[in-house]
Amino acid sequence: MSKTEPPGLVAQGARGEQLVEQWVQQLGLSRAGEDDPVRVVLSDQGGAVEFDVGGQRARFRLQLCGREVQGRVKSRVQSKDPLLKAVGRKKRVCDATLGWGRDALVLAAAGNEVVGIERNVVVGRLMALAVAAAMDDAWFLRWVAPRFRVQVGDAATVLHERAFDVVYLDPMFGGEDTKGQVKKDLAALRALVGEGEAGAGELFAAACAAAAERVVVKRAKNAAPVAPGVSFDVPGKAHRFDVYDIVR
Ligand SMILES: C[S@@+](CC[C@H](N)C(=O)[O-])C[C@H]1O[C@@H](n2cnc3c(N)ncnc32)[C@H](O)[C@@H]1O
After folding, report:
1. Does the residue 226 lie in any domain?
2. 229 shares its domain with 211
3. Is ligand 1 within 6 A of the CB of residue 70?
4. Which pTM value belongs to this model?
5. Distance 153 CA to ligand 1 centre (A)
6. How many domains is the chain partitioned into structurally?
7. 83 and 110 co-located in one domain
8. 240 in a structural domain
9. pLDDT per residue over 72-91, tens digit each?
10. 50 and 122 in one domain?
């Protein structure tokens, strides 16, 4: 994985000042300088990521509720979504590569108990702010919040501490999503985390040890499996989900 510089922090308003001060103290980050290619703006609205993409300045604000998010999640939950086919419903699921939680929201809204683990502290903290902001939203409160927890840490370690029915891994970036917002999600994540696969070998081993029923790994359509022994796969439009049934 390519290395990224930590983002600079920008405060807006009194709440932003408070958050920036906390992040400086607790995460060892600095206030943004003139040349910082990636900035995180903190305000009473939560957090936004500013970054360069194709020579243009872009801004991404993570939102876990609202019409667009709710519509996207609902339509996946109500359709034959390949992720849900691979993971199942009413399971104890660990989403061990949480990112912006797009998949985790679908898993939780479909009735799974989801613990989402994110290794990048900035992404994890932005997720936590977005969850707090979504607590005002009736749909999120009813369909996601009761079954969704965010934990910041390395899943390869956290998975040793708890048992799950299913562990889900999405160590990759890319895909062929065409909606502008989705592209911006991934570009912002890449700006914070770097490119490429995420130490998938060690994580896969930890996932197999922690899962009682199965491990599900998202792959680009034509990519090789992360490990041999795929029990079956569920094809999607741009991806497929490799399912490893756990037999003890
Ligand atoms: C491709 S993104 C996942 C996108 C996610 N499925 C979504 O729906 O938004 C991969 C994420 O996994 C995180 N990650 C990679 N290795 C990890 C690990 N060992 N523990 C926790 N998070 C990890 C990365 O920091 C990155 O945010």
Report:
1. yes
2. yes
3. no
4. 0.94
5. 11
6. 2
7. yes
8. yes
9. 999 999 999 999 999 999 99
10. no
